[in-house]
Request: fold
Amino acid sequence: MHTTTISDAAQPRLAKGVRLQNDSATGKSVLLFPEGIIELNETAHEILARCDGRTLKEIVRVLAEEYDSDVAALAADVRETLADLHQRKLIELT
Amino acid sequence: MIAPRPYALLAEITYRCPLHCPYCSNPVAVLSGDLEGGAPVTPRDTGSQELAPPYKAELTTHEWKRVIHEAAALGVLQIGFSGGEPLARRDLAELVRAAREAKLYTNLITSGIGLDDDRVRALRDANLDSVQLSFQSNDADLADEIAGAIAHQRKLDAAAKIRAAGIPLSLNFVIHRRNIDRLPKMIELSETLGAERVELANVQFYGWAFLNRAALLPTREQVVRAREIAIAAKERLADKIDIFYVLPDYYETRPKPCLNGWGQRYLTVNPIGDVLPCPTASSAIPDLRFENVRERALDWIWRESESFNCFRGTEWMPEPCRSCPQKEIDFGGCRCQAALLTGNAANTDPVCTLSPNRARVDAVLRDLNSASDHGRHWTYRINPTVTSLDRSIVTASVRE
Reply:
C-alpha cells in the first residue's frame, strides 16, 4: 500500500459511497460504506465533519482555533488520520 | 447470554429470480405457494419437517417497512436488499427509501436483470447508497451457460446505467472450477466497467452449490494460481479498485470466522419473514426452528429466540473448540458447514484440521484432485413456482 503525504492545499472529502453518521445505539460517530462500518474516535469525527471542500490547511486552522491547540501538532494528527482513511479508500483528495 | 447489538440486516425480499445459477445459496427445497401479493397467512406447522413447508406469501411492502424500522431500532446500521432477484419486487425503491429514512446504509445486491432506466432513476431518487452487481464470467457464452439464461449483455448494460446514475458500484464475480481460470479477464472487465470495488468470491458450498459441488469445486492447482493472480491485481490496481479475493474454504486449514459469530452482528429476514442468524441456515440446519416477523417482534427474536441463542458465544462449543485458543477468533467456523458435512450443526467446522471430521473434507478434495476427467454436469436452480416440490426427496439427494 502507498502512504500518501497530504499537502496543505488538498481538499479531503468522503469517498463515493461513504457516509458519516451518528450511531444512535452508542452516540458515537461511524463511517458506513459497502460491506463495512468503522467506529470513529472523537478526533476522526471532528476532522471528517469538516471535510466539506475545505483545504487541509483550513481544517487545521479551524480546529486549532476551536480546541485552542498548537497548529503544528494538530496538523500532524490531522494528516495522519486522513492518510489512514485515504489508504482505506474512505476519503478522496482533490 | 446477553445479546449484542446487530449491525447489518440482509433482507431477502424474494426468492424469485430470472437466473438459475447452479451455486445459488437459496434453499434447495424452495418453498412454494403464493408469492408476491399477500395471500392470507396461515400459522406455520412447526411439528413436521417432512411436509413441504408452507411457503406463505412474501412479506408485503408494509411488513417490510415495519421490519426495517424494527431493525434500525435494534441498532442495525446497514441493510442489503437481496434475494432471489430483489428487482423482481416492484416496491424495491419504496423499501430503499424507507431504509434511508431509518438512516440505514442501503446496498442493493442484484443480478442487474430488470434494471431499466426508470428503475435506476427511482433507486437513485430513493438515495440508494450502493449497488453490488453479480457476474458469472467475463464473456457472454460461459456467463449465460452458468446463469441458465441470456443475461451477460444485460448485466453490462445495467453496469453502465448504474455508473451513469452516479451510484457507487461493486462487482461480484462468483468463482468456481468452470470460470476460475478466467480471473485475469474478469479483473480486466472490472477495470473497463469502472467499479470501485470487486469481489472475486469462490463459491461456498451451501444451498444449490452444495448439491452441485462436484461440478463446481476448483482443483488445488487452480486455487493456488487464482490466489496469485488476485494478489498481484490487488497490488497493481490499489489506487483504482478495492479487490477482495475469497478462498473456497475447503482448501483452508482453519475455518472462516463465519458471521463473526452466530447471532453477533448479522441477521437475515427471508421472503416469508423467517428470521435467520445466517441466510443458509434454513436449508443447512433443518432441525432448527426459526421465528417469523409476523408472529414476533424482531427485538425478541434477536435477543430471546432459541435459534439465535443456540450457537451464540462459546458455551455451546464441543471439543476441540472448547479448549482452543482460536475459539474467539473463528468461533468454531460455520454451523451450516458442520451440519451439511457431519450431520450435526454443533460440531466443529470440519474444514478445521483439528476437527475429528476433517477427513470428510479431505476425501472430497482427494477425489476431485485425483480425477483426470472432472464432471461438468450440474443442476440448475429452479424458481419457487413449483407447488409440490417434495422436500424429503431433495434433502435425501443433497446429503451424501
User: Anything to note?
Assistant: The longest strand of chain A covers residues 29-33.
